[in-house]
Amino acid sequence: MSNSPRAAGPGTNTGNVIRDSMMGLVPETVEEIIRLNGHVWRDSLVSASILETLRLRNARTVNCVFCKSVRYDVARADGLTEDKADMISDGYEASSLAPREKAAIALADAYLGFPAGISEDAARRVTDAFDDDEIASMMVSLMTFNFTSRAAVSNGGMPEGPLPITEVSVIISGGTHN
Amino acid sequence: MLDEATSINLDEHLARGGPAAQSFARLWRQLWAQDHIPPELLELCRLTFARLHGDEVEMRTVNTFIENGGPKAALRQLVRDDRALYDPTLPAGWRPVLLFAEYYWTDAQSIPDDVADAVKDHHGEAGLVLLIEALGCIDGRIRSARCLRDLSDFRAAQEFAHVE
What we know:
Strand order of the largest sheet of chain A: 1-2
Largest sheet of chain A: 2 strands, parallel
Low-confidence stretches of chain A: none
Strand content of chain B: under 5%
Radius of gyration of chain B: 17 Å
Order of helices and strands of chain A: HHHEHHHHHEH
Oligomer: heterodimer
Largest interface: A-B, 59 and 56 residues
Low-confidence stretches of chain B: none
Helix content of chain A: 55-70%
Radius of gyration of chain A: 16 Å
Number of strands of chain A: 2
Number of helices of chain B: 7
Structural class of chain A: mainly alpha
Shape of chain B: globular
Distance between the termini of chain B: 23 Å
Helix content of chain B: 55-70%
Number of strands of chain B: 0
Largest sheet of chain B: none
Structural class of chain B: mainly alpha
Order of helices and strands of chain B: HHHHHHH
Shape of chain A: globular
Distance between the termini of chain A: 36 Å
Mean pLDDT of chain A: 93
């Protein structure tokens, strides 16, 4: 992996981490990506703690060092503690996570598989825990978390070691408008 | 009754997911209406991912987001057969993009600097960024569509068992 970023940002300092990143180089898409991230966090049909569970499972699989270090304020306010964040690991099945949280991880793993796909057991758990609207909402969230984290990794310049855990506000990546 | 989910018709299946689904659909349309990377080349990337996923449904799906019908049939077949990368008919600047896509799909951490540099040489820094965004959206939509098809099959099997 490249030691330095392959594409630098546009040199702006707007206060929005997406607009000031390399994504700011593509004006055709950057504003929609900001709106998308805002909608994912503000208008999701599942709770912020479920969203954070999906996001952290994705970050761990993609190995995005930045994403793994971030905790969204709305998810913490919704009860996603560090103890819970630590449980989103290989041994999650035996953890004290709620069945709905475990089903969300099963969905994330199905999406992130090579190749992607849902086993019969995972399908049963996901459909028992979530309705069709919630599943659709989670699929959009997974796609968003996955493409933004893989974008960060693809651009290079990722630190090798873990970063300190940092709480961030949805406002700095999702904008303030809908 | 919706057709089975693919990366192309996915927005119909996810519309019930609320405003984020609508935003993702707008982003998807924008990827096919920009000037940084030819849409025909992005379509070959979609077929490359379909091949790597072993996804026959995705492979035979026509991309209705490309106005001029997309890449030539011969090029599409080369990608399907995994023979495109070194074919002399591949336009200049397309090979590094397809090579980048294969590394991206395998593991984004594995992309070599010379491959990324070759993309930048041909398509510019903004082209590299657009490509990275597009590959993430394409692969994500193929993955989501596969999951939705599996869920649909599961429900159908359950209904059948219930009737039996």
